Structures
1.
Amino acid sequence: MTAVCAIDLNHLNKYVLGDDTLRDEVLEIFVEQLNTLLGALDPSEDDFVWKNTAHTLKGAARGVGAWDVGDLCQEAETLIGEVNRKAEAREALLRALRWKAMEAIYAVEALAGKTRS
């Protein structure tokens, strides 16, 4: 997978209509949200906070076409209530989510580097 594949540019282009400046601004906002929400996604949080944080991040990810991040957030939303080994499951999912988030951030940075030259 190439770096830019972590962000579905065809999907994002539907909203920015080919405007590279707007695309870059939207992606910059996404990276800020990604960093903020990942920092708030704490496996020891109560179910309400965990689910809402995951849900908010899912929406941000899917809005820009970061499908892998969105899919993991959807899975995170299910780790509430009576889940066997919930803390461990949340920790494992958070590790995977951080990895996919790094890929998305790398894709944004690579794309910005291409448009600045």
2.
Amino acid sequence: MKLLKQSIGEEAVVPLMTPLIDIFLLIIFFLLTCTFASGEKEKELTIHLPATKGGSRGVEGMRWYFNVMETGAVVLQGRTVTLKEVDGLLEAEHERRDGIYLIVRAHENVPYRMVAKLMGLFSRHGFARVAFQTIDEKE
């Protein structure tokens, strides 16, 4: 770090503030550009998603993550729910269905009938914004 000298002849130690300002600007930049966790506890669950080729696009709006575990249990917002409870939740949110995205994350070994039952509930209540989350397939 360079030090400024007084012109009178006395040497005064005055640190330059520019490097410190640069550091603070970098910290602010990284804080503003990093992605924060959306607070969903479902990501902590261990689900082996199937691999697919193709891109994934993010969705805007409220997201409900339906995690179908290997055992067939459905986990929504950190708690295990039955299909009857899912039916009740979808019925209660029927009016706001256009602003809600339903994202299904099913274990790769889950039978298709479990996912089909969820899809039937979504369709019955008029939810059209449904996505399936997978991982990228490595070539």
3.
Amino acid sequence: MPNLAMTKEEAKNEYGVEPSDDSLPKYPYGLTLYLDDDTLKKLGITDLPKVGTSMPATITVMVTGTSQRATQSSKEGEQMRTCLDLQITDMDITMPTKSAADVLYGSSSNS
């Protein structure tokens, strides 16, 4: 599975400035999902994971739009931009499991 993080060059092209390690978003616009209370309930998520936790997710999407557009760039001349609009219709997220020690004694990483 490809990692969609932007390279420093891609970030510079996107935002017009040389990025420092933490100054700009790591991923392009449009790749963040915001799940509200109702959606979390449908997914069965009652306890929120820690920020930075990586979790596998399976989604089904429906294509809701496609487009191509020619744009003028001062460096490269004319460029063709291609876009794909996707609507998530079904999703499953696998929540991280706690070890028996964490359940019995609490996580030592919270100290």
